Amino acid sequence: MRGRMGTQGSPVKSYDYLLKFLLVGDSDVGKGEILESLQDGASESPYAYSNGIDYKTTTILLDGRRVKLELWDTSGQGRFCTIFRSYSRGAQGILLVYDITNRWSFDGIDRWIKEIDEHAPGVPRILVGNRLHLAFKRQVPTEQARSYAEKNCMTFFEVSPLCNFNVIESFTELSRIVLMRHGMEKIWRPNRVFSLQDLCCRAIVSCTPVHLIDKLPLPVTIKSHLKSFSMANGMNAVMMHGRSYSLASSGGGSSSKGNSLKRSKSIRPPQSPPQNCSRSNCKIS
């Protein structure tokens, strides 16, 4: 495990988590292109024997934590299947890669899933359709690949190393799945870095009851997102402030005051003593 030296001479790791991922799929589907698109990290295998295996490291930022990934590209040729079986030991995530312009490579995913189930059962995996920049030559429809991924309980991405599209996102999502599976989310949750959108939603929902979100002068899509955010995070204004609110029905002639927000528990103002009180202690000094 690589690291750097701190100011006091003690080793300080340059990452918070270390994960080992495998890229599997038939030959010439562009697994090497995905690794070459990653600019940072080392490309030399830590092991002397690396015939048929490409190696690359990269570091991503996941919710404020640094996750170092060791990426192993196993060759899709049949003579290297034994190498895959060896390197699959200790793997924590697998990317099943196919070429969207090659129907045969997509049909071969079934064979790789059988290999994974036999030699790396239970390891999280995602389906990756490579070479999206060649969509005009597409032979595998997006919807078919997505339904196939859902059938096999996998997340689906279409990526393009040439355009740098969805490559880091696919690694980030697989890292999130792996860490959540191992219960690591509880560790980084207190230090989670919220996006600007999350902070805005949190500020609005914390002071607005759920049933009043529809009254806000916002687009329908944003109001729907606020409701989802409120339900997902349990941030109801009733729980946040310990108050209960109700909508006052518009009655009588005071239609201008319509549906206004008021507290159900009214606070009475202090009453003055009656004018005809004869007792001396009732007089106001």
TrEMBL record:
It is a lipid-anchor. The keyword Cell cycle does not apply. It catalyses: GTP + H2O = GDP + phosphate + H(+). It is an enzyme of class 3 (hydrolase). Pfam families: Ras, SOCS_box. SMART domains: RAB, RAN, RAS, RHO, SOCS, SOCS_box. GO terms for biological process: cell migration; exocytosis; intracellular signal transduction; lipid droplet formation; negative regulation of focal adhesion assembly; positive regulation of focal adhesion assembly; proteasome-mediated ubiquitin-dependent protein catabolic process; protein ubiquitination. It comes from the Eukaryota. SUPFAM superfamilies: P-loop containing nucleoside triphosphate hydrolases, SOCS box-like. GO terms for molecular function: G protein activity; GTP binding; GTPase activity; metal ion binding; ubiquitin-like ligase-substrate adaptor activity. Keywords: GTP-binding, Hydrolase, Lipoprotein, Magnesium, Membrane, Metal-binding, Nucleotide-binding, Palmitate, Prenylation, Ubl conjugation pathway. GO terms for cellular component: Cul5-RING ubiquitin ligase complex; cytosol; endosome; Golgi membrane; lipid droplet; plasma membrane; synaptic vesicle. Residues 274-285 have a biased composition (Polar residues). CDD domains: Rab40 (cd04121), SOCS_Rab40 (cd03742). Pathway: Protein modification; protein ubiquitination. PANTHER family: LD44762P (PTHR47980). This is small monomeric GTPase. The gene is RAB40C.
